[in-house]
Amino acid sequence: MQLFRMLSVLSLAAVGLACGHPHAHDEHEVVTRDSIKIAPGPSDTQIQFAPLPSIADSVTIDPALGYFAGDLGGGVHWVTDGSYSNMFLVSTHGVIVVDAPPTIGHKLLYAIGNTTRLPVTHLVYSHFHSDHIGGASLFNASHPTIIAHAETFNLLASLSPRDPLRPLPHVTFEDKYTVGVGNQTLELSYHGPNHTPGNLFMYAPVQRIALLIDVVFPGWVPFTELGLANFVPGFTAAHDVLLTFDFDVFVAGHLGRLGTKQDVLLHKKYMEDLQASCVSAINGGFNVTAAIGPTVAANQGNAWAEFKAYLRIAAQTCADNTTSRWLGVLGAADVFGFENAYRMIEAVRVEYDVLGPFGLS
Fold first, then answer.
1. What number of other Cβ atoms are within 10 A of residue 95's Cβ?
2. Neighbour-count burial for 234-247, b at 16+ CB within 10 Å, e otherwise
3. Domain final residue pick, 221, 256, 291
4. What range does the domain containing 156 cover?
5. Model pTM?
């Protein structure tokens, strides 16, 4: 109820500003710069985004194959279609596969078959999202042991009806688990929710390769709404956890390039800058009453409309400040600038407890 009382106070002040503030119309124009729309506008398919910097360059995908398979040494290989990526380890007794993105699909079988005749004996789920493990049923014929965090099992088991494309894991764990097959070792660990509950940190110690899916996007800013992050504080903290691993190569699960520690450090700086910009926006970065005044005047008594106007201008303020500093530094800083800022604004408010005008009065 306190939120509604605060909105009512802001609404009364904003109505007056909407009628007499000399810049009310301009402020309202900023509010309407919302890239979250129910349906595309006439210009949405014609937007020209900023050129990608070279840091975002992908490996070359052979159009005839539709995928790229790279040898990382020590029996480890990665596969990408330019949008998704995963990894497999060839041991003396079988193959360990990490994730099975459906967009790569049967090409993953080709990549493994072109590398070894050994069967896939183990399949690791990084997390429960279908865009990363929706191709798991392709391995049903070899009956691999499927390994995942207990949270991943619970989330998959809760689906009704069950998804036959994502078989339930056979082995689950809470904190740490080591997959050992022949001469290959893959260490799995869980450090709390980040992108999703159950999202794993994975590490091949001999080859010094780390995997963390949907958190760090090497050379790029995060996918929309911070990669659809379930828990932003955990998503942000995951960068520091990842940096505790002694790795040379990083597999991120997305896009057509591998990462390094420098990529993780740069991505971490982006996240810190985005968070600081959003905190600044909430803590007086714009005139709230002037910004929401036109919406209040046009939607009397509609608290949701008022609050949407507030969240949109807060996110746009944050996005404008952040994007201006990251264009040309990371790929596509302008593409999901608003959406990432919008998710961070909500995280700052309800997960970090930075409430701005809606805090304790």
1. 26
2. bbbbbbebbeebeb
3. 256
4. 58-256
5. 0.86
